[in-house]
Write a sequence for this structure.
């Protein structure tokens, strides 16, 4: 194993990818995913985990210093990655899924890329919120959704942007998409008045129970206020 060598762009891209999909509390050298990536890069797990900790300082959405040792190359590659996530996810993940072997026509390749993109977004959002609904705290993975603030169909540029996501349980995800709840600039849950005007049911009670409560903040990638403003204006049933 080579030690002490400088990091390269080609090494940093998969490290950023793994950073996105790893809960903050699992960024350590005993994490099997970090050990696996370290072996691929011919680096020590400690080196990879330390680099991931450095990257935390580059998430400007949160007031957290990370390890404070991010290099200029770290910053440049971070900006490159988030400037075109879809391109780089394909570049990073293709060797793992062997896109070439799935070429039974362009439709099949496109379906595979979409699946890879959706998998990245879900893993990143759930990792950011430590696999818990940010409103209710529900933690059963099959009940959790990586919810888009700007809908997938309306914003190709931000489809994979982690700051365009919320971790919600299935009920609150549907309510958010339908405009029955939103978040104000202070990340307080606001339930549509249309819910309280309906006869009380189990689902409406579950929504109203959290009205006025602040979400549990993510450890990474705070939701973008511009995206939330768009949701309040264009989706929320005020």
């Amino acid at each position: 194993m080579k030690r002490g060598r400088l990091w390269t762009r080609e090494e940093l891209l998969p490290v950023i990818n793994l950073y996105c999909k790893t809960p903050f509390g699992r960024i350590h050298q005993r994490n099997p995913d970090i050990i696996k990536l370290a072996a691929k890069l011919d680096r020590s797990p400690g080196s990879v985990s330390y680099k991931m900790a450095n990257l935390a300082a580059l998430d400007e959405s949160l007031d957290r210093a990370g390890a404070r040792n991010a290099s200029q190359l770290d910053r440049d590659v971070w900006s490159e990655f988030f400037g075109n996530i879809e391109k780089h996810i394909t570049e990073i993940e293709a060797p793992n899924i062997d896109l070439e072997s799935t070429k039974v026509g362009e439709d099949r390749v496109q379906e595979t890329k979409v699946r890879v993109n959706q998998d990245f977004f879900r893993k990143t959002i759930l990792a950011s919120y430590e696999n818990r609904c940010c409103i209710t705290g529900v933690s059963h993975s099959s009940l959790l959704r990586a919810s888009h603030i700007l809908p997938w169909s309306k914003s190709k540029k931000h489809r994979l942007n982690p700051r365009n996501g919320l971790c919600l349980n299935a009920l609150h995800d549907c309510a958010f998409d339908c405009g029955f709840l939103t978040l104000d600039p202070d990340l307080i849950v606001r339930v549509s008045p249309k819910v309280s005007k309906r006869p009380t049911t189990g689902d409406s009670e579950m929504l109203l129970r959290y009205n006025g409560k602040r979400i549990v903040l993510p450890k990474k990638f705070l939701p973008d206020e511009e995206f939330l403003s768009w949701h309040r204006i264009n989706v929320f049933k005020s």
In short: The beta strands are 144-148, 165-169, 181-183, 189-191. The first strand starts at residue 144 and ends at 148.
